[in-house]
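Form 12-C: Joint structure prediction
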Amino acid sequence: MITLYGMADSGNCYKPRLLMALIGRPFRHVEVSTFDGTTRSEAYLVKNPAGQVPLLELDDGRTLPESNAILTFLGEGTAFVPDDSFDRATMLRWMFFEQNGHEVTVAVRRSLSIYPHRKAAATEERLRLTLEGGRQALQVMEQHLRKQSFFGGERPSLADIALYPYTATAEEGGFDLSAHEAIRAWLARIEALPGYKPKSWLPED
Amino acid sequence: MITLYGMADSGNCYKPRLLMALIGRPFRHVEVSTFDGTTRSEAYLVKNPAGQVPLLELDDGRTLPESNAILTFLGEGTAFVPDDSFDRATMLRWMFFEQNGHEVTVAVRRSLSIYPHRKAAATEERLRLTLEGGRQALQVMEQHLRKQSFFGGERPSLADIALYPYTATAEEGGFDLSAHEAIRAWLARIEALPGYKPKSWLPED
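Section 2 - Result
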């Protein structure tokens, strides 16, 4: 059975867990966390020298980091990846946007706001920049969702799974979603998908 | 013929141009720039409401933003995309790293350092954070390249094309590559690929 190393509270780590739940694929979760230092333990650094989570480990020992790359690997051949090559590129377009425009602002501001060990990094300038950038990213999403139900078109794709976790917790980072009706309706559509599980869910041993 | 809207000096815009040169595919280049305001012109905002470059336009009018998504679309079926699904995910892993760890530090610091219109944004804190983050990203690349010739393994892939442009200009952002021997050897390997063209190259009309 494949193994996912990750932090229960991290949105990046939730992405592959959510996909596994939606496609009904069993996996093992191993908690590795920046809170207790296990991402910096010798045993983990052998697997991922960068010390980041999530990390996927196959039965044969091969490993894959980067949440969105893990999604593409696990999603291949499922209904969450479009057949058409332009549609697949459009799905990836939103996954790159997630990493370059959304995660670095919406997710980073949440982490600066709620984690005690990030307090020193939470300068006034950084909070302002991530607020501005995050609002811009949410505005781009809102505009898109006023025209389409999901980020790959009319059906959910890996792009939705990549964008869901940190959008669902955006308010923890000080972002106000009350005026973003289309985003709130999209969050509800994801939560209504068969097999959906919240971030707190972990597979049983 | 497909059209690429982009800024000649942007590394993100150079990525798809470099791929087209390497695979020998003809295309039309249309200069759209943040310098002269054309990325904010009405005509361009119709094509890309976010006003960003590069943007790919197909003959039928469909458009695709995000440099790395454009690479995946144009690269499909070429030697720059591995056949094996794990290898493809590994290629994408480095392309997500490029957007989340490398572009936001190495490329942003270059832009803050050399573009007059970015001077107000180039605060001491931002220059320090992008320096620290960029050095870390370059260190990750150096470690990898001491073991493998390219980012997808022993053959060049889209991951190399995504990482090349802003690594090649890292010194313009104040990064010192002199101690990164493996990176410098990799840059030379890319520049020796058949069909390689420098950033200044644009296709003839």
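Section 3 - Comments
The mean pLDDT of chain A is 96. The two ends of chain A are 12 Å apart (CA to CA).
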